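Notebook entry, structure prediction.
Reason for the run: the old model in the group folder had no record of what sequence produced it. Starting over properly, with the input documented here first.
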Amino acid sequence: MITATDLKKVYNGDKTADVVALNGINLTIPEGVVHGIVGQSGAGKSTLLRCLTALERPTSGTVTVADQDITKLNEKQLRAARRNIGVVFQHVHLLDQRTILANVAQPLAITGVGRRAREDRARELIELVGLKGRENSFPAQLSGGQQQRVGIARALAAEPPVLLLDEPTSALDSETTRQVLDLVRELRDRLKITVVIITHEMGVVREACDTVSLIEDGSIIQEGTVADVVQDGSSPLARALMPTPPVITDDDTHLIDVTFTSRRTEVGDVLRSVGGINGVDVASATVEKLGGEQVGRLQLTLTDAQAPGRVDDVLNELKDAGLQVVQS
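New structure, fully documented this time:
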């Protein structure tokens, strides 16, 4: 559905060195997934967003959306191609002097859709995002979460197969964030669209995403399904997605960090296996459903670590039980 190949974006510096914002991005987002692109401020997320939507042309490389290479299109062709991409920016930018109905219908008015048809479509979308009855309200009368819903409805007006959200929850409280992310997944399931979420919040990835890419210094350094990323618990992204409380140990205690997914073994089987290993205790544990699978991370303590060969024996038993040893 969306691919970026060797995507580079270099800004020419004024009296300074050139700035490399994107440095050879290779990205594939399958159809029908909720994909998170996560990274800290300055990592290149916003530049990548603008290149994926053709709001900015890359220095080199290609971007393909719905089987169309948008980097090769002229301005007229781009305007048509952008109808395949619904975008909600971090600041929704609703028109203050227009009703919610008029805001949602605006993209259709621009493309020449008749008044009756565009208002019918707008009402349908307003109901779909859970704001039925607020058609005649103005943006100032809505909460931040409701304004995000209006932005999503407006972005879906032209029935695009791709919805791109830029930091959709950055200004929302935790409960409203959960509601917006639940809506995103519901819309993906009902409309069969592909959703890309640009975010710096790991909670958004945990709550909503099937797949994820980590961007740092203009490069993708890790990507995959959320469950697979967490399974590779040695990576910074995995630890950020599934943090565990710190464990204080003494010199006679060996700390073992392991991960598992329900794809390979069930939680109950894991706990029984760990409980059957002499001298091993669970110091902390996190088990969540991420990307449609149960994933877990355990920090185990081995109290008789000084026994000859004991540590290696325990590590082998844990691996035989379907656990991945992250750190020992």
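Summary: The chain is about 35% helix and 30% strand.
The old model has been moved to the deprecated folder.
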